[in-house]
Amino acid sequence: MERKRNIADNRINHAGYQYGNAARKLAAAPEIRPYNPARREYEERKEQERRARRREIRRNNRVNLIYTTALVVCAAVVFFICYQYLNLQADIKANSETVINLQEQLDSLKAENNSYEAEINASIDYNEIYDTAVNELGMIYPNRNQVINYDSHESEYVKQFKDVK
């Protein structure tokens, strides 16, 4: 039993000892500096400079926030304008394709009308009309003094409201 006490006693006696090369100071008191007015003015000036730097940083951060916000707004406006421009380009392309299709339809309808007109003109027998007019209806060609010429530059037809004598 005595041996156990010795081991316990050794532990108690050597509890404050630190093994290794990184020993720390126990109960180190803070360093006390003597009063120095120049040092105090220096520290106050440093503190004022730190406050001024902090104010400057806060002001710069506000300016940066405003600049960043303006930049984001400008980028959004540019994006919107580009988007609208691309939409207009797509609409123009679609409309031009529609115009091309309508022009092709117009050309085909004109060709169809011309062919119908040619068929109609080919089916008219002018000799038969002349025979009917002269033989059945008793019509004759007018004399020169009975023909009145009328020149119109506005339209290609004339409306007759009254008998011409």
Unreliable residue runs: 1-6, 8-14
Q: How much strand content do the residues show?
A: under 5%
Structural class: mainly alpha
Classify the helix fraction into a percent range: 55-70%
Largest beta sheet, briefly? Answer: none
The chain-level mean pLDDT equals: 81
- The number of distinct β-strands equals 0
Quick take:
This protein is an all-alpha fold and 165 residues long. The protein has 3 helices and no strands.
Report on this structure.
It is a single chain. The chain is mostly helical. It has a domain at 36-138. The protein is built from three helices and no strands. It has helices at 2-13, 37-123, 126-136. The longest helix is centred in the middle third of the chain and has 87 residues, at 37-123. The radius of gyration is 57 Å and the shape is rod-shaped. The model is unreliable at 1-6 and 8-14 (pLDDT under 50).
